[in-house]
Amino acid sequence: MSRALSLIVLVTVALAIAQPASADLTAFVGSTRSLSSRSARGGAIGVSLAIVGFEFEYSDTFEDTLRNAPGLQSSMFNLLVQTPFALARLQFYGTVGGGLYRERLSGNADTGVGSNIGAGVKVSLVGPLRVRFDYRAFRLRGSSTDRTPQRAYVGFNLAF
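^ thats the sequence. predicted structure below, dont judge the formating
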């Protein structure tokens, strides 16, 4: 009987402290550093369960033909690990994931798979509105011009 009671208490406590799933949407601008610094833009949508979350991110970096630096589009699915709540209006996170990329330069294009790892912080402004600062390091497989581009961005984030 004590096992059943312990199980009931454990489940009740877990349900009492469990947080509902939350989601957020980010629109960002930034810079991709590989062969040269180039403007990047994109968006992300994510779902999180307190500490663990998942995100889909799309990014487009502009081509620089003068420096022979390709444009880069990436579509990545990521796993996020984050602080379960904001500390002094800051919610820190780390991310790792993978997906597809498309590199283009002077009419030539290459498509392949890649991975990324990164970290960032979401800064609460007012209500559900936040500013997001993010850094990602990519590893591109295939015949990409630069196999290890890096990107930093700032974006507006809406939690819902």
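The helical segments are 2-17.
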